[in-house]
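As practice, study what follows.
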Amino acid sequence: MPSGLDGSWLFRRFELLKTRRSPHEPQWRELNEFIRPTKRKIAQSAMTEGQRRTERLFDTTASDANRKLAYFLNGSIVSASTRFFTMITRDPDLMRDRDVAMWLEDNSTRLYMALQQSNFNAGNPQVFSSLSATGNAAVYEEERDVNISGFNGLRFCVIPVGTYTMDHNADGDLDTFYREFTLSAVAAAGKFGLKNLPQYLQDAYRSKPHERYEFIHAIVPRPTVEGARGSLPIASYYLDLKEKSVLLQSGYHEMPVFAPRWETEEGETYGRGPGHIALPDIRSLNRAKELGLQALPLMIRPPLQVPHDGIVGGQVRLTPAAQTAVYGDGEIRPILLGSDLKSEMIKTDELRQQIRSVFHRDLVALPDKNYMTATEIVKQLELIYREVGPALGQIQQEYLTPMLNRTFGLMWRAGAITPPPDVLAGADLDIEYEGPLARAQRTGDLTALQSALSVVAGIAQFDPSAMDRVDTDAVTKEVWESSGASMRLLRSDQAVKQIQGSRAQAAEAQAQAEQAQRVADVAATGAQAGKTMNEALQPQGAA
């Protein structure tokens, strides 16, 4: 990257990335048209509010299936009702330290509450809807711009597919992101400062303040050149699209944009989702529904053939209830065009079923029963995880983990994270997910543990020494961690040792008391026996 990074270099990179994006745009446009018709059109910056966007849509099966899959993923991965993650350290010795466990849990709750107090939950359904339909999504995170001391809270912005370009580094991590957006002249003056705007925007500010203009937000790695040392590692440039000038420069400690993909092919920047697989069936169903709607009025009110000396106008009329006069036929009868609506309905039902299957509707739908046992629920979650597990891994790696890392960084720098225990100095922190689907990944270990304990308990009925092999304290901790229950509900090792010590002392005191009682009983019995023997040895009749 050249020294003195300027707008021209940024725009050259932007145009290159747009060229790489362009082959995907026609298919994204079609996917949005059939699956997410209310979303903005791809590669169209100007939209009319209230514009009708369902001109070619005749069947909503795909749209409904995609919406329900998105809602299911939202509730199963990032549930708003329970904390869906916890911070951990991969060092098992540190995780056994109660102070460490309490600090991790406390600050996990702080992160979760910061998300709950933002618009995070409002934007996630859009993220999952875009992921399953187009295979791509993008989210921008920043601290709210509020002039108060400390942590100001979070703000998230979901960026529509087709309005951004991106690139990844050698490790596959997102490191370059360009976003196209529009602002009114007055909004641009408020964001960048009136004096920093090009002359044409300053003029527009005075004459056409509410007319919208195009801008680009470029987020790129900071150039390692002289004069850039000590700067934030991620550079931010706001650019004017018309004059290709830099309006504002800043930077970030972490990448502020997360761009998850449903699944990726080797060498491709953008992802693919269920919508790509279902698109041929979606097209067929939409066309079949269109033709069926055209044939329906002809079946209900077919065109008629009526007697006449000739065909009036020399033309057959095939519109509903139309009349066509023909020679040499004195009978009035309908003109049958060969449409079979029943057959068409069977075909469209098959297409609907195939589309729903691609969007995993058969798995994520509620079962047709009023009650499910815990085992049935676990099995259902395991089945769902096998189907969407790879996509779940992509979502965690490319969205949730970097998002939580950035949230932690924002809160840490604002003093919203409590100081860690000294023993954590230099330790690496990680994220463990606690949502229903994430827990389904760990049910196998828990099930295996339960089966093993059941077998050992059966052996112990014949040989009690079998239980000597089982470390019940370690088993309790393993079960507790696998269940996702709060560590606050477990006593510390010190408290457990105190309880065990008190129990041992009480047992020892009890044993000593029982021993003393037995000695006393033996002594009393011996004394009574001696007395009885003495009485027996006394001469009969002695005074």
Q: What stands out?
A: The chain has 15 helices and 13 strands. The CA atoms of residues 288 and 453 lie 58 Å apart. The first strand starts at residue 85 and ends at 89. The two ends are 127 Å apart (CA to CA).
